[in-house]
Write a structure and sequence with these properties.
The complex is a heterodimer of chains A (385) and B (308). Chain A has 19 helices and no strands. Chain A is mainly α and 385 residues long. Classes of the chains: A mainly alpha (385), B mainly alpha (308). At the A-B interface, helix 1, helix 2 and helix 4 of A face helix 4, helix 9, helix 10, helix 11 and helix 12 of B.
Chain lengths: 385, 308
């Protein structure tokens, strides 16, 4: 046995000796030299990767705290996207369980792991600003305890709304090339904070992205139209949109029509109150005047001078202008119907117009129309027709 | 036979024997590939198929972006895992198995330089990884293609009153942007390059390792450090803050010795719709070639005079 052991020990020693240390040293020198050559190239490559947006996550202490150990190791080891998807699933499960604190935590992880994926931010904002907010609103309405209800309304709801907004804003910073997150910020300002001014600013930003669908710019125009003191700018935007869609290939939306009418009424009324009849007349009769100048004059005659006959004459001029929107025909007929002698004729014309272009009739117009119908004693069958 | 004749035959043989022969390397590489295929490694395709088909059908309640992303994540994750395992375990198994089967002695007693043997083995492994990645990609792209069309049809169906041509076009553009894109092939290529470097590392380790298990463990540790090194350096020594000599020394050693595998992790970005420049891709290919050349050289230096 001793002989065998000795032989074995000898063989190991022989092997070690034969293994030239010079070769080991040479290998280390090559490895080191290679390291020094490749490091600048790799640093440059890393820089390029960073510039092209491939280095959007770094394992900081906060990331380590957010992730489990396995997830952290997986994220470093090249499975970051997969780990983000797993946390996305966990967030979805937490959403189903109405565990909003976990939803917030998991959405935070997904967005920090893949900040350049717009959908992660979108879902985070949606879960908190809409779902969590609605959950606490419903709960507060049904809560029997007044203090609890107050807490939900004044602490939980605003908190989740702010969190959702924060996610959307951070996302918009990370993915500025996408329209989506700026639109989400705008939606929150519009639907939750009821702030059309901030909403219009974000809709404008969103509409400037290359991938923005046309409705985002329309949303900008609509929200701008709701901003007090910005009617001139809103009219500029809305009228350009109105003309590009009315005379273009796309269909004109109801909102643009309504905004256009509201803004033209506002501008006309404002001019009617500020300017004298002479000024308005000279503006309307001057070369290069538009139907809007006539509308201002018409508004002055109607609201200030209370001269229906003259107003009708002005509105006839407007209706003859090809550029004037169709709702002026409805306005003219409605004005005509104010005179009992013309009611029958106006009613028939309005009926035809309603059949041809129902979109130019607003709710109050339909109420007026029904009243007119009732006063004329039109039969129910006739009305239905 | 006269002495002159013997000398001339000897000279002829010496002249005919090239120092480096691609055909010999190819013969070894092909045999390595065959040897690995006979180990029934392609059974992994069954697991891969179950994974991606499962990922395709399990998450139907999500938005299409999430659904397609999960499918891509699972597929790329599985590709990375399988390719890395193949390259490390396959390389770690080969030399000890050749010694155990005595194949190595048969090869080396012939006029085959050890360098050719090592390069042939490495190419064989890389070839196996490439074939398995091609198979996985084929399945992945097919499933992704059918899924994106399925989602498009579902989305169009959901629009009340029927979708207009503009709506259909918009949906198609949006859905397909998350579906099959040529950039995803570059992601697969990056997975392959990383696996190739990992195989190179395992080859170096296997030339001085005493067991297969040792090779696998050491290679996995290097693989992990290779992923973490650039991030660790960035974390511990933020830009411009490496002041102390010790800090510089540690940072230098880590960066010099271990390969930077994090560099190849580009599919995270490609999955979410980012694009990579051709220059950057060529850089990664060039660096991989550089790594493999150096690792082959080191392996040869360590293996050349090794007592077998």
């Amino acid at each position: 046995m001793d002989i065998i052991r000795k032989e074995r020990a000898l063989s190991i020693v022989t092997k070690l000796k034969s293994y030239s240390y010079r070769r080991l040293l040479l290998s280390l020198i090559i490895l080191g030299g290679f390291g020094f050559v490749r490091i600048p190239i790799e640093m440059n490559t890393e820089k390029m990767l960073k510039e092209q947006g491939f280095r959007d996550w770094s394992p900081s202490m906060s990331a380590r705290e957010q992730l489990t150990q396995a997830s952290f190791v997986g994220s470093i080891g090249g499975f970051r996207s997969l780990i983000a998807s797993i946390y996305d699933l966990r967030a979805h499960q937490a959403f189903r369980d109405k565990d909003w604190a976990s939803v917030e935590k998991f959405r935070g992880v997904t967005t920090s792991l893949q900040p350049r994926f717009a959908k992660h931010w979108d879902l985070a904002a949606w879960d908190l600003a809409w779902n969590a907010y609605a959950y606490y609103r419903n709960k507060s309405e049904w809560a029997e305890d007044g203090v609890e209800s107050w807490q939900m309304k004044n602490i939980m709801m605003p908190r989740y709304l702010e969190k959702g907004l924060e996610f959307a804003k951070q996302g918009a910073e990370w993915v500025p090339e996408s329209y989506r997150l700026s639109m989400v910020v705008a939606d929150i300002y519009s639907q939750k904070y009821n702030d059309p001014e901030l909403a219009s600013q974000w809709y404008l930003k969103s509409s400037q992205a290359d991938d923005a669908p046309p409705y985002v710019f329309r949303a900008y125009a609509t929200h701008l139209a709701r901003c007090e003191g910005k009617e001139e700018k809103a009219y500029e935007v809305t009228s350009s949109l109105y003309r590009s869609t009315r005379f273009g290939t796309r269909a004109l939306t109801l909102t643009v029509r309504r905004d256009m009418e509201r803004l033209e009424d506002h501008i006309a009324l404002s001019a009617a109150n500020k300017m004298s009849l002479e000024q308005l007349e000279s503006a309307a009769l001057s070369n290069g005047s538009t139907y809007l100048d006539y509308a201002k004059l018409g508004m002055h005659l109607l609201e200030v001078k209370k001269d229906l006959k003259a107003t009708l004459a002005v509105y006839r001029e407007i209706v003859n202008d090809k550029n004037a929107p169709l709702f002026y025909s409805r306005k003219l007929l409605m004005l005509l119907a104010r005179n009992p002698a013309n009611q029958e004729q106006a009613y028939e014309a309005l009926k035809k117009l309603l059949k041809r272009s129902p979109e130019i009739f607003r709710r109050q117009d339909l109420i007026e129309f029904t009243k007119l119908e009732t006063s004329l004693g039109a039969s129910k069958n006739n009305r239905e027709k | 036979m006269s002495a002159d004749k013997v000398k001339s035959v000897k000279d002829d043989l010496v002249l005919q024997h090239k120092l480096f022969s691609l055909s010999r390397v190819w013969a070894i590489a092909f045999n390595t590939f065959t040897q690995l295929v006979r180990m029934k490694v392609f059974y992994f395709m069954l697991i891969f198929s179950v994974l991606i088909i499962g990922a395709n059908f399990l998450f139907l309640n999500f938005t299409f972006e999430q659904e397609l992303k999960i499918l891509k994540d699972v597929s790329f994750g599985a590709m990375t895992l399988f390719a890395s395992i193949f390259s490390i375990v396959g390389t770690a198994l080969l030399i000890p198995k050749d010694i155990e089967d005595r194949t190595l002695y048969t090869i080396l007693t012939k006029p085959v330089p050890r360098f050719e043997y090592l390069v042939g083995k490495l190419i064989g492994i890389i070839f196996l990884v490439a074939v398995s990645l091609v198979l996985m990609s084929f399945l992945f792209f097919a499933v992704l293609y059918f899924r994106q069309h399925g989602i498009l049809a579902e989305e169009i169906k959901m629009i009340r009153g029927g979708a207009t041509d503009a709506q259909k076009e918009y949906l198609k553009e949006t859905i397909f942007a998350q579906g099959v894109r040529p950039e995803l092939i570059l992601g697969v290529l990056a997975v392959f390059l990383k696996a190739a470097v990992a195989a190179g590392v395992a080859l170096v380790v296997s030339t001085f390792a005493s067991s297969t298990l040792f090779t696998i463990i050491v290679s996995l540790v290097v693989y992990f450090i290779g992923h973490a090194q650039s991030l660790a350096l960035e974390y511990y020594f933020p830009e411009g803050q490496i002041h102390g000599a010790l800090q510089r020394f540690i940072a230098g050693i880590v960066a010099v010795v271990f390969p930077n595998l994090q560099m190849f992790n580009i599919f995270d970005g490609l999955i979410t719709g980012q694009s990579i420049s051709t220059t950057l891709m060529f850089r990664l290919i060039g660096l991989t070639g550089f790594y493999l050349t150096i690792y082959s050289m080191i392996s040869w230096i360590l293996f050349a005079k090794k007592e077998l």
